[in-house]
Design brief:
heterodimer; A: mainly alpha; 7 helices; flat; B: mainly alpha; globular
């Protein structure tokens, strides 16, 4: 569900920003204040809220899954962007882009079949190289929570 | 009247250096953020135990998190700088797809993640897919 939120909120946010910015007149670098005003328009504001939601979901996903699992899975957002661009913004999508959509969908389906987290031994004696990823007291909580989550899944 | 903008030609080595800077800074930021979130622990568990405030406090009290966000911000500005000199159709697909590969390498080297054959096999079509999407 968290990965779904990551994959949905980022493209929806980007699409809202795109829609909001295309409605506005051209912004010049000599008048940066127009960018500040743009933040308070409905589409841009909605886009920013969605992107804040994306970052929160992304951090949550990274707290229980490997980076090398989360990043390809969240690349599915690019597929959603293409679909939103085609059917909501009515943009033309070339066959290369549809090929990209198919490749990413297949890859995400493939990686989702594997484990989301690297199994590690219990952290009673930490090797120096493990200090980077388990340097705080939350480590044991993390291991317990993972064990609980795996049993639920 | 709007004049179409086309960046002046850039030396290929300088263009490569700009894209490499985006990739390096972005990968460093992603790895530091991931390391921070792993060190903090499962946010769902912390939220269940200490509430949303506890979860937010756990994140903002982690120095690694700010280091990661700092590098991600630097990557964003490096991207803006690259876009100022190079075409979007070159920078966006190159940076997005190569970052995925460098993250897989960095995840294995620094985060000690188990980047097995399945993840490598998935990273390649995702990178090619992002390249095609950006065209």
């Amino acid at each position: 569900m968290i990965l779904g939120l990551v994959a949905l909120s980022a493209p929806l946010g980007d699409t809202c920003l795109s829609r909001g910015m295309t409605v506005l007149p051209a912004v010049s670098l000599s008048h940066p204040a127009t960018l500040i005003a743009a933040v308070f328009t409905p589409w841009i504001a909605l886009g920013i809220v969605l992107l804040i939601g994306f970052f929160a979901s992304y951090l949550t996903a990274l707290s229980w899954a490997d980076l090398t699992f989360v990043l390809p899975a969240t690349a599915f957002g690019n597929v959603i962007v293409a679909i939103l661009a085609r059917f909501w913004l009515h943009e033309a999508i070339s066959w290369q882009r549809w090929l990209g959509v198919v490749l990413i969908t297949l890859a995400v389906g493939f990686i989702a079949q594997g484990p989301s987290l690297t199994e590690r031994p219990t952290e009673t004696s930490q090797a120096p190289e493990e200090l980077l990823v388990s340097s705080r007291s939350h480590g044991e909580d993390y291991a317990r929570a993972r064990a609980g989550k795996e049993s639920v899944r | 009247m709007t004049v179409p903008f086309s960046p002046a030609p850039v030396n290929p080595w300088i263009a490569t250096a700009m894209i490499a800077a985006v990739i390096l800074l972005s990968t460093t930021g992603e790895v530091l953020t991931a390391a921070a979130m792993k060190s903090i622990g499962d946010l769902d568990h912390i939220r269940a135990r200490s509430g949303m405030k506890g979860a937010i406090y756990a994140v903002v009290s982690c120095p690694l998190f700010f280091a990661g966000v700092g590098f991600l911000a630097l990557a964003f500005f490096a991207l803006l700088f690259a876009l100022n000199h190079l075409n979007l159709s070159l920078v966006a697909p190159a940076a997005a797809s190569l970052t995925l590969v460098t993250n897989a390498i960095a995840g294995k080297l620094f985060l000690k993640e188990n980047v097995d054959r399945r993840r490598w096999t998935a990273a390649v079509p995702v990178s090619i897919g992002i390249y095609f999407l950006a065209h």
